[in-house]
Write a structure and sequence with these properties.
- With 206 residues, this protein is an all-alpha fold.
- The chain has one domain: MetI-like (MetI-like fold), CATH 1.10.3720.10.
- It contains 9 helices and no strands.
- The longest helix has 31 residues.
- It is flat, with a radius of gyration of 20 Å.
- The termini are far apart.
Length: 206
């Protein structure tokens, strides 16, 4: 029984990794656009909606409504990847924006004075400094994603939570399967927490 539930860890990790990667790409793009005052109101509306509505509602909209609008069918994995990514992107965008705001304005002025192009200024000077300060917050977002992926069980995906539910229904007991699921999630989040502490401990001051 425990082995069957633990096999769902790989499914949970797949959703977490895809969602974090997708959310980081979208969120970084939104943060840079917002920081440079491009379509700020539209980006703010997107972030507000994603942060202000339940993830379960977003997941349900993507899986049941989006296919009917596009006229195509999508798999549970694709629906989960889209929903988790766009939801996470709103939080990551705000994390990165806060990191950019913490970079000393003198860095921008010095880059301009030295004739450094905007691309290299952002890539080599500004963003690396922001990334150092926001890394713990990004790891916390990854921890949140690990737990939120349990919602994919509502669509029948064979993740940790769904496997625990199936075992519970088959054996007419909830304690041991759910404790196994809880321990699995805790193990994943604990490892991420240790990564955050390790990074904080070895991070050199700016």
């Amino acid at each position: 029984m425990e082995i069957y539930i633990l096999q769902g860890i790989w499914v949970t990790l797949q959703y977490t990794l895809v969602a974090f990667l997708g959310g980081s790409i979208i969120g970084t793009t939104l943060a840079f656009l917002k920081y440079n005052h491009k379509a700020v109101w539209l980006i703010n509306a997107y972030i507000s909606f994603m942060r202000g509505t339940p993830l379960l509602v977003q997941l349900t909209l993507v899986y049941f409504v989006l296919p009917s609008l596009l006229g195509v069918s999508i798999s549970v994995f694709v629906a989960g990847a889209i929903a988790f990514s766009v939801n996470s992107s709103a939080y990551i965008a705000e994390i990165i924006r806060a990191g950019l705001n913490n970079v000393d304005r003198g860095q921008f002025e010095a880059s301009q004075a030295l004739g450094i192009s905007k691309f290299h200024m952002w890539k080599d000077i500004i963003f690396p400094q922001a990334l150092r300060t926001i890394m713990p917050a990004l790891i916390n977002e990854a921890i949140t994603l690990v737990k939120e992926t349990a919602l994919i069980s509502t669509l029948g995906e064979q993740d940790i939570m769904r496997r625990a539910q199936l075992v519970s229904a088959e054996q007419y007991t909830y304690l041991q399967p759910l404790l196994t699921a809880a321990a699995s999630y805790y193990l994943l989040t604990f490892l991420l927490e240790q990564m955050s502490k390790f990074y904080d401990y070895h991070r050199k001051p700016l």
